[in-house]
Design goal:
2 domains; Spo0b-associated Gtp-binding Protein, Chain: A; three-stranded mixed beta sheet; five-stranded mixed beta sheet
Length: 224
Amino acid sequence: MKFVDSASIRIEAGKGGAGCLGFRREKYIPDGGPDGGDGGDGGHIYFRGQEGLNTLSEFRFNRLFRAKNGQPGQGQNKRGKSAVHLTVEIPLGTKVYDLETDELIGEMIEHDQIMLVAKGGFHGLGNTRFKSSINRAPRKTTPGTPGEAREIGLELSIMADIGLLGMPNAGKSSLIRQISSARPKVADYPFTTLHPSLGVVSLNDTHIVMADIPGLIEDASEGV
């Protein structure tokens, strides 16, 4: 049986590091030229397909993902360190949308497939970059540019591994509450479950999707 799981998250790529304003200062060279280095690039954000995942439950509580910023440049023409890229694992079959434009960014099809979803900012330039024949001591630098920030929608069609079938009020919802983190409505009247609800059962490194299906009586799903 197929169900649709969805989640909304925010992703923020890293900002580029600022360029350095610096001049060479040594014992016998008191008036040296510029030596300010460039900053480092901000971290990108990637999604990676992971066949061991089968729901979007992780994104219920973890909705913000930020890559790190690039480091600023230093004197002696030292470039700042670029940030490590952030990789977020999502289940195969997940469709990725930009919620602000409704654009389908892509769909995760294969294990270890990589999808770039937010680009990190470009590094700033140190003052060494602006030295010229008419400006031997430039004081100009540039800041790093901001990384991309996006509101992302994730949509996953889920195939349940196990379906709980039975008469109304037989205890299906109570069972799924006990063995998973799902919280379907439970009461002592027959037609509590009006729509299928899902629970994920974790067994060591394996995750099993279990569906609590409305009672098998005509019009049970309508609550009549």
